[in-house]
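User: Fold this; tokens only.

Assistant: Input:
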Amino acid sequence: MEAVVISTMHTLASLRTESSNGSPADCMISGLVFEALREIGKEHIDARIIERLKDTLTLNQKGKVLNDLREAPAWMHPTIRAVTKD
């Protein structure tokens, strides 16, 4: 499970450093976050995962993910709100 978390966070971190406002990477970010949470699994999401996502995502990316919340499964909503909360 740790390998999935590290791999997913590495992908998100790469997008953060490679993307700028309005880039294609920003358009994909919500799907990547949703898929990362799905891969990690509801039972394995904890404060450490939330903090890592908060630190990895830019403010613009957090806004995009929050705007796309309706596309995520209901069980992800509390986690996504925690990640995007300032």
